[in-house]
Amino acid sequence: MAHVFVMDNGACTIKAGYATGKEPRQIPNCIIKAKNERKRVYIGDQIDECKDRSSLFFLLPFQKGFLVNWDVEHQVWDHTFGKECLNITCKDTCIVLTEPHCNFLSVKDATDEVLFEDYGFASALRTNASALSAFGYLDANPDERCCLIVDSGYSFTHIAPYCDGRVIKEAVLRISVGGKLLTNQLKEWISYRQLQVMEETYVMNQCKEDVCYVADDFEENMAIARKRGAANNILRHYVLPDFLNVERGYVAMPGDSHDGEQILKLNHERFAVPEILFRPSDVGIDEMGIAEAIAYCIMTKCPEPVRARLFKNIVLTGGNVLFEGFRKRLETEVRSLAPQLYDVRLIQADQPITDAWHGGSKLAQSAKLKDMVVTKADYDEKGGWRICRERFDN
């Protein structure tokens, strides 16, 4: 088979690289314009060349988790495949590309058309990120037959059960909470209470990653956050970057000196933002939290014989699982919702953000891949979208 190129095409970040590599390259999946450089457009990881990252304007190919702007995506892919980035020779390459669960047929067909007709890949596999994570986990744990992938990413949180390498489609659940919503919520709260930061998506996303954590007991943490002085061990200062002396914001204790630096005071926001993952109704989203959705998925949507195996193999992937305390809180809540006769075990992926890419890398090195891909010859001879739908969607 041709060289295999694995691309986890996330709504926020593309994780891409040849399957023989050790780590993928992480490329922002967007086009960026900077306020201070009006004539310059940054595509993907060209943002590293931008010196002042305040008030950035983002053009995104994804909206609400689905690929809707092919003009933007084409430019990002051109950059990713091009000489200045990964230098891919498409005609000699098999691509393994991820898409979201429950993707629209029109988007699927357009994706296949772009891969084969615009770029001319030798062969392709269009699959889900959770499928690659499941393959990687089950390959590393041959005694296990089932796992439940909890993928909490930029746009959504997906919960997908896999048995014997196949997804139980009717059991896949989606929660409309991801990293983007959490960052936007933090921006709104800070803008209302302290400083107007609604245009500072880039900086506030870093702030969220640096200071937020998942509380093991929300009410107890709220009680501490209401206290003053030394009794409040939750309050932190976040020093904002000025892009002259400070390239990235950082966390500081309230008593530290910040001469001439602009700071944000973060108190209950630190744990209230990630709490939305567990209680979406707090911000008006009428959906289950992650723990409740996991229990509902296994106990209601999955066959009884596989439930014990699924509870014992819950795999956490995606950027949001990196919040401090996430795994502990989720395990506690899932344990309280699961029947006592079942063991509950949560396994956080070693590298949650790139876990799907690593699973795809393992798949590329297995004999199974050749039976899963569609070749350019198949695409040309058997009706394009028909063979792709038959192979990829079943």
UniProtKB/TrEMBL annotation:
InterPro entries: Actin, ATPase_NBD
Keyword Acetylation listed: no
Signal peptide: none
One GO cellular component term: cytoskeleton
Coiled coil regions in record: none
Pfam family name, one: Actin
Keyword Cytoplasm: yes
Subcellular location: Cytoplasm, Cytoskeleton; Nucleus
SMART domains: ACTIN
Entry's family note: Belongs to the actin family. ARP6 subfamily.
Full protein name: Actin-related protein 6
